[in-house]
Specification:
The protein is mainly alpha-helical. About 70% of the residues lie in helices and about 0% in strands. The chain has 23 helices and two strands. Strands 1-2 form a two-stranded antiparallel sheet. A hairpin with a 2-residue loop joins strand 1 and strand 2. The longest helix has about 45 residues, at about 525-565.
Length: about 600
């Protein structure tokens, strides 16, 4: 149980604030954040700091906003590591117990990379993102970190829905008609997933009387509904298309942020609640090859990378389905590395989009001549996602394939190896080749702004640092790691795989070249059917409205005619009567009243 422990000498701690108050607002804001880290770390879940900070963004100056965007993730990262390893804050709620702070090794790992990504994403969008997007980003990232520290299903659900709100707003903040439409479809998919998840949580509470976030099987309907709710956010079939539909419509900085949180919190939830669920192996393999095929067909560079997100999450889902300690370590490590190198690839693509205004591969090419730094960072990200030796992908993805081999899952192992070659084809070669090195498009854009380049340098450095020193990441994985990635056999196998995949790409280069086509995804069915259903429903409603309106008009006309017949100029009630007859009727009525009274 966490207990508040406030420092007794608040005056001493507040002195730096007073001393810097007359200086630049950035110094003051950062000092306040440092003071807050001492005061709040035992009182609030780490993610709540960013959520509360998001509420300040619309009301501060641009300079203070920049300080908050960079300072809040740093503060949150500090808080993540200040929470004791066995911390558990328990709160009574009705007949259940909630745990808004529950520290686990898996949660700390994911929270760490989420905080790093919030800082890198904020740095990348500094000076580019609108206040609405910045606010939504902090809410989104803070909610994702809240999920990683949730110890019960209700707390997880609350943060889960806040994430949906924040991510929808990020897409909407792009301000285009396509972004507004994509944000609405995105919201509908996630509201559907949220409803299914909540139904599962309620059913689980009724069935077991507990909301604890513990491993579940798939032997009950509530557990199955919870699994479906998690898989919707993971981008699993048949709703995988929401990722390439929505993410590419965000701003360059918005898509970088979106790539990091929703699908990875789903991976975290699956890892915590459904480890070893066999069906996840086959769902993950479907996602792996689905992402590869559509990424190879795609012409839009950002949609290529969006499909690649589905592909990479498929590796993680498959490893969670295997369920051994090595596999779960692989899923967690791959998620950590993937957040970083996929953000780096999207930063490179976002820089190209910002400086050229173009996103289709057929409109690009030869950009390495004027954007060598952006091209270099794109290549680093491409090598990392392809698991090239000395990069983060090599030391993380191999944990998953080795786990499949250790369990004797020959078919799964072979499919994962084939998928690794496919990743090199669509993300390792296709993206950098068609954007930076294919035939010269004649475009000569400058490098993106300095803050964008700084964010790319940061993530490139992390990709190489983890690849060269994998022990830094292995040390914080959920289970002890004895795996050695740099063996002669593993290095040679991976190099041969990449060599032959690259050879195949250039042999089939004519087939790999894209044209101005649109790839139809499974979302075509429900988007077209729902659109047709909506039009038909609108016609039916309009027809029913017209009929009801006609009937109401006819009834009103009849009522007016009836009133006119009695009260109109010729009506019975409008006729004049002689005074004598009226006196006679009054006398009759008085007589009748008298007789009734006497009785």
């Amino acid at each position: 149980m966490l207990k508040p422990a406030l420092p007794p000498m608040l005056g001493v701690l507040a002195r730096p604030v007073r001393e810097t108050a007359h200086r630049k607002p950035i110094a003051t804001a950062l000092t306040l954040l440092a003071l807050g880290s001492l005061l709040l770390w035992r009182l609030f879940p780490p993610g709540l700091v960013m959520i509360l900070g998001a509420a300040l963004i619309p009301f501060v100056t641009a300079e203070t906003r920049r300080a908050l965007v960079l300072g809040l993730p740093i503060l949150t990262l500090v808080l993540v590591w200040l929470v004791p390893a066995d911390a558990s804050l328990s709160i009574g709620f009705l007949d259940a117990r909630l745990a808004p702070v529950h520290a686990t090794a898996e949660g700390r790992l994911f929270a760490t990379v989420f905080a790093i990504m919030a800082f890198a994403g904020g740095l990348y969008g500094l000076g580019q993102a609108r206040p609405l997007e910045v606010t939504a980003t902090l809410l989104y990232a803070g909610s994702a970190i809240g999920v990683t520290f949730a110890g019960d299903l209700l707390t997880l659900f609350i943060y889960w829905e806040l994430m949906a709100l924040g991510s929808t707003t990020i897409i909407f903040a792009a301000g285009t008609a396509r972004a507004r439409g994509a944000s609405l479809r995105y919201l509908l998919v996630h509201l559907l997933g949220g409803v299914v998840l909540m139904a599962g949580i309620v059913g689980h509470l009724v069935e077991t009387g507990s909301l604890a976030l513990t491993p579940l099987g798939t032997d009950s309907w509530p557990a199955i509904l919870i699994l479906i709710g998690f898989l919707v956010n993971a981008g699993a079939p048949p709703l995988s298309a929401w990722i390439p539909d929505a993410y590419p419509e965000a701003t360059p900085s918005g898509m970088v942020v979106l790539s990091a949180f929703t699908t990875k919190t789903a991976v975290f939830a699956l890892l915590m609640v459904f480890p070893g669920t066999e069906i996840l192996i086959w769902i993950g393999l479907y996602m792996v090859f689905y992402g590869i095929i559509y990424a190879l067909l795609e012409n839009d560079m950002r949609r290529i990378l969006a499909y690649s997100i589905v592909n990479q999450v498929g590796f993680m889902v498959c490893a969670i389905g295997i369920g051994t300690e090595l596999a779960l370590n692989g899923a967690a490590a791959h998620a950590f590395a993937h957040i970083i190198y996929k953000a780096l690839l999207l930063m490179s693509a976002g820089g190209v989009l910002l400086m050229t205004g173009k996103r289709k591969c057929t409109d690009l090419g030869g950009l390495f001549q004027s954007m060598p730094i952006t091209a270099m960072h794109g290549i680093v990200g491409a090598l990392a996602i392809s698991a090239f030796p000395l990069t983060s992908g090599f030391v993380t993805k191999s944990l998953e394939t080795s786990a499949a081999a250790d369990e004797g899952l020959l078919i799964v192992w072979l499919l994962l190896l084939a998928a690794s070659a496919g990743v090199f084809l669509h993300a390792g070669i296709k993206f950098p080749w068609f954007v930076f090195f294919q035939r010269d498009s004649g475009l000569r854009p400058a490098e993106p702004p300095q803050t964008m380049r700084a964010a790319m340098w940061l993530l490139s450095g992390l990709c190489i640092l983890i690849g060269v020193f994998p022990g830094l990441l292995y040390a914080i994985l959920p289970y002890p790691v004895t795996y050695r990635p740099y063996t002669f056999e593993h290095v040679m196998t991976q190099l041969q795989l990449l060599l032959f995949a690259g050879f195949a790409f250039f042999v089939m280069l004519d087939q790999m070249k894209r044209t101005l086509t649109i790839s139809l995804d499974l979302d075509w069915f429900y988007r077209r059917s729902f659109h047709a259903l909506g039009l038909r429903l609108a016609d039916r409603v309009a027809s029913a409205h017209a009929r009801l309106e006609g009937r109401a008009r006819a009834a009103t006309a009849r009522l007016i005619d009836a009133l006119a017949a009695h009260n109109g100029p010729q009506g019975a009630l409008a006729r004049t009567r002689p005074t004598g007859s009226m006196v006679l009727w009054v006398a009759i009525m008085l007589g009748a009243s008298l007789l009734l009274y006497i009785r």
